Fold:
Amino acid sequence: MSTFFSLRARRALAAALAAAVFLTLAAGCGPKPADRDADGNIIIPDAVLKDKDKALSYAKSLAINFNGKWADWHEAMRASGEGESFEGYASHLEDLEDFCDQSKSFRAYIVYSDDPGAEEYAVTMSYAAEPPGPGATCKALPEMRAAFEGTATAEPNAWDYNGDRYLACWSAYAPIYDGTGAIVAVLAIDFPAKNVRASYPDWNRDRPQWNGYTGE
Structure:
């Protein structure tokens, strides 16, 4: 009799433990509210800021190299409508490729619009594992619009590049100026967010744990 109750007790305990583990895992997959300070302001962890700041710093530094003659060439290429057939396209695309190789970025691309307030921007050049074809467009994000207005800006959250949870990245945007000092395009980069991937899934908008922060 004691053996029977002992076996039943062990089974009950095992079931209870399994249920507890399931509930713990389920809770871990849900949204994690962002921490706030005494004034109610959202606290961004230093490691997360490091990922964000690094992406923004790379975008700014690369955009500086594209100011002036490079931007003038880009305007001539864009106005011609020839795209990849335009003289010098391959060598100028190599500048994006070299940047991605050196910085280990997933992608670097150039966006343009006659109307910075438009819903979509044209992607005029892009270097990535799978670059977009001719006539490609992208959604005009608030951070892109800020860059068109002269302020280099990073997105408020990381995201999964190509939907791969192991390729968390942070996107940043910086203005490109032609020889007259006018903003003629925006440089965009998708930079690895290693700290977010490793320890802060709540700062990745594609993860179930995302805290919902949008930078507001």
The first strand starts at residue 107 and ends at 112. The CA atoms of residues 6 and 54 lie 59 Å apart. Residues 1-5, 18-27 have pLDDT under 50 and may be disordered. The chain has six helices and seven strands.
